[in-house]
């Protein structure tokens, strides 16, 4: 008290009086109940709680005390607790001895009773009676029982329980494993069936390298139909090295395996009911189904709408490759109606190489056109229009219009007017039926006289005309079309003089002065 009084001198305080009834918190020690030596059957509340915990276990307290007494692992600890002697750490499981106590021959660790090894199986079965998981079993055990490896035993029991294992949830999924990237287009393809969807069946084929999709309508999902559609695919894009599919009966059949072996194709299949292995095809099945549902099309229009979906998908940039499937397949973007809105310059047109020595005709050329409708082989007419480099529109003499290739045309016959001089021709008609481009029409030679008599040579003079045009010499007539420039200039002049009339005559032909000798006959 003197020491406490010296300690309090360093503080400033006021002393107040309080009666014992109001000062119970400071006078608790003096008010503790005194043990009644005459009442030996008095039980503490703490003892009642511990005994109730023991009685709720699947073993009785007497049985538990008996097995604890015979347990060599806790023999020293039990004796030390009874006499109040400290025991070695190995005998108390490395736990502070103050945490242990003894109740009716049972060792208590806090509020939990120690379970001997021979009784642990019965206690574990009781804890696992509801087939709950590890966490709930541990929380329940921490309220009743304890032994050195109780948590490990609970984990082993829950893991090895067949009833719990039969209804256990799937384990956590591993990280996504990607297929090895192919090195060329159509090296590995993924195939899958879709349907029946909207009353139809579909075969989906996806290329792993280009992400190029193919969807084929099929009448049924049999092996024969599958092989037929794959043959069609192989003809278009080539035979792949690897085909990935699920374990459908069509793909596992002996006929399908024989078909792949003959073509040198490796077949890879995922585990049953694990569609993620064939995820490339499965994902596109979901994509095109969603698009068909969105379009709300009739069954008869499904094929048409499917074509539009495939065209849009093949042109769009794929997020996995950063390019559209069409660019990876063809090296260019396939054309659609969107390309029509982009203006193009004339310079972008690719000039084709000019072909040398190609026959051609000009407008108003007289031609013979091949006739494929009647018994006659040729029909005659004039060229009315030239279509490109090799095609022409021909107006026949009977008024019909035909389109013919240059290989189906030849030069037509020339109209002539025979007068006294057989070598004079109707120049205007000739000019009308011949093209103005001398290269377009093949040359056609008129018949020439064998020899000239002196009278004919003397009379090689200009032919008189009825207008002011340039005269045409006899040499020009005899040479046929060899001097076409002279003929064309005269024809144009005549057309101007007659106001565009095409029926004007050339002029009055002169009388021939050639001496006609009588024929020589043989005198027999």
Plain-language structure description:
The chain is α+β, with helices and mostly antiparallel strands and 524 residues long. It is 32% helix and 15% strand. The chain has helices at 2-8, 45-55, 61-69, 75-83, 117-127, 134-141, 150-160, 162-166, 223-237, 249-252, 254-262, 279-295, 302-315, 325-330, 427-433, 454-458, 474-478, 484-497; strands at residues 100-103, 106-109, 112-114, 145-146, 188-197, 200-207, 213-218, 242-245, 266-269, 366-370, 378-387, 391-396, 401-405, 409-411, 462-463, 472-473. A five-stranded mixed β-sheet has the order 7-6-5-8-9, sandwiched between helices. Strands 13-12-11-10-14 form a five-stranded antiparallel β-sheet, with no helix packed on it. The longest helix has 17 residues, at 279-295.
How do the helices and strands line up, and which of them pair or pack?
Blueprint: H1 2-8, H2 45-55, H3 61-69, H4 75-83, E1 100-103, E2 106-109, E3 112-114, H5 117-127, H6 134-141, E4 145-146, H7 150-160, H8 162-166, E5 188-197, E6 200-207, E7 213-218, H9 223-237, E8 242-245, H10 249-252, H11 254-262, E9 266-269, H12 279-295, H13 302-315, H14 325-330, E10 366-370, E11 378-387, E12 391-396, E13 401-405, E14 409-411, H15 427-433, H16 454-458, E15 462-463, E16 472-473, H17 474-478, H18 484-497
Parallel strand pairs: 3-4, 5-8, 8-9
Antiparallel strand pairs: 1-2, 2-3, 5-6, 6-7, 10-11, 10-14, 11-12, 12-13, 15-16
- Low-pLDDT segments: 424-506
Distance between the termini: 193 Å
Please bin the fraction of helical residues: 25-40%
Task: Profile the largest sheet.
Answer: 5 strands, mixed
β-sheet strand percentage: 5-15%
Rg (C-alpha, Å): 58 Å
Spatial strand arrangement across the major sheet: 7-6-5-8-9
């Amino acid at each position: 008290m003197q020491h406490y009084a010296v300690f309090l001198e360093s503080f400033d305080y006021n002393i107040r009086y309080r009666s014992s009834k109001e000062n119970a918190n400071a006078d608790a020690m003096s008010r503790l109940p005194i043990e009644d030596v005459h009442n030996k059957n008095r039980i503490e509340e703490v003892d009642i709680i511990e005994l109730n915990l023991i009685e709720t276990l699947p073993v009785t307290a007497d049985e538990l005390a008996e097995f604890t007494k015979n347990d060599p692992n806790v023999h020293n600890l039990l004796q030390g607790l009874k006499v109040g002697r400290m025991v070695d750490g190995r005998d108390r499981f490395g736990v502070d001895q103050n945490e242990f106590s003894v109740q009716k021959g049972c060792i208590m660790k806090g509020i939990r009773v120690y379970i001997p090894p021979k009784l642990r199986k019965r206690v574990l079965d009781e804890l696992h009676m509801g087939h709950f998981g590890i966490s709930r079993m541990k929380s329940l055990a921490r309220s009743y029982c304890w032994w050195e490896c109780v948590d490990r035993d609970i984990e082993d029991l829950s893991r090895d329980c067949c009833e719990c294992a039969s209804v256990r949830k799937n384990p956590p999924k591993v990280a996504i494993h990607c297929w090895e990237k192919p090195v060329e287009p159509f090296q590995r393809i993924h195939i899958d069936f879709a349907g029946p969807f909207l009353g139809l069946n579909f075969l989906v084929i996806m290329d792993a390298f280009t992400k190029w999709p193919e969807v084929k309508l099929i009448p049924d999902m049999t092996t024969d139909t599958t092989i037929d559609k794959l043959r069609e695919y192989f003809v278009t894009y080539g035979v792949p090295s690897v085909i990935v599919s699920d374990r459908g009966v069509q793909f596992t059949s002996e006929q399908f395996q024989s078909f792949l072996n003959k073509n040198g194709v490796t077949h890879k299949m995922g585990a049953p009911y694990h569609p993620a292995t064939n995820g490339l095809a499965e994902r596109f099945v979901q994509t095109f189904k969603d698009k068909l549902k969105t379009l709300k099309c009739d069954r008869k229009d499904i094929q048409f709408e499917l074509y539009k979906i495939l065209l849009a998908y093949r042109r769009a940039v794929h997020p996995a490759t950063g390019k559209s499937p069409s660019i990876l397949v063809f090296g260019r973007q396939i054309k659609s109606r969107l390309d029509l809105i982009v203006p193009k310059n004339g310079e972008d047109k690719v000039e084709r190489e000019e072909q040398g020595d190609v026959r051609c005709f000009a407008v108003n050329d007289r031609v013979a056109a091949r006739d494929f409708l009647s018994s006659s082989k040729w029909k005659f007419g004039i060229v009315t229009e030239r279509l490109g480099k090799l095609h022409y529109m021909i107006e026949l003499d009977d008024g019909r219009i035909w389109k013919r290739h240059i290989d189906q045309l030849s030069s037509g016959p020339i109209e002539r007017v025979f007068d006294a001089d057989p070598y004079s021709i109707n120049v205007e008609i000739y000019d009308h039926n011949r093209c103005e481009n001398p290269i377009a029409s093949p040359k056609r030679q008129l018949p020439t006289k064998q020899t000239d008599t002196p009278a004919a040579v003397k009379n090689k003079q200009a032919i008189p005309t009825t207008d002011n045009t340039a005269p045409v010499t006899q040499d020009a007539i005899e040479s046929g079309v060899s001097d076409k420039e002279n003929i064309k200039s005269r024809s144009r002049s005549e057309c101007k003089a007659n106001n565009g009339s095409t029926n004007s005559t050339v002029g009055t032909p002169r009388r021939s002065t050639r001496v006609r000798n009588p024929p020589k006959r043989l005198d027999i």
